[in-house]
Fold:
Amino acid sequence: MNKFSILIVIILFSATAHSSLMAAAPLWWTEHNVLIPNGTQDNYAAINLGQLKHITQKAALEMNLKLADYGGAGDVINSTVNEFNRNDINNYRPANLGQVKHVAKLFYDRLIVIGYDTRDNLIRHGYAPTWTHAYPWIPTTPNSQNYGLVNVGQLKLIFSFDFDLDSDADYLPNYLEYIIGSNPDIQQLDLDGDGINAPTDEYPLFNQATVSLSVYTHLE
Structure:
């Protein structure tokens, strides 16, 4: 890889390759065994195709669980990950930028359709506040630069979307605040306006909620 290619890799992922993320790692990484328990962290190591397949399968599982009311991961992602062959000898080959972007775009497209603010999530996990793109790469990057390698830190950041993060501690996760249009940094303990604050109120669990369900637009 020449110096220009290395520069493009850095620009593509902005503040990636950090040894740690600004926001806490998503809970689903632990719940779905994305990472090796008590393993040695090496965010600068190049990833292989098997690792890319592994995290995408776990990401699809998380979306199917947490976004069930919104259609989950969707047919395109589910059919893609179901076709992965975990025993393919090619799984040990390095994964390049183009391959990672191709797979990751399926997830970002799905999150954007649902209403998840992918740009805000990227900023919370290390991208500059001036980042303007919904994807973790610059859309105008030439295809010729997609042959560079991707490291573990970059892959983690790409799949850092989080359905448990509650930045303002109002018992309504950020992803739901994105969807309904409220501010994830401004605490609203009585979102449904019935005079009862969360968590005593029922709206965080959506059980017999008094909040108007019309704001929760489900995907057909």
Notes: The longest helix spans residues 49-66. The radius of gyration is 18 Å. Residues 33 and 194 are 40 Å apart (CA to CA). DSSP finds eight helices and no strands in the chain.
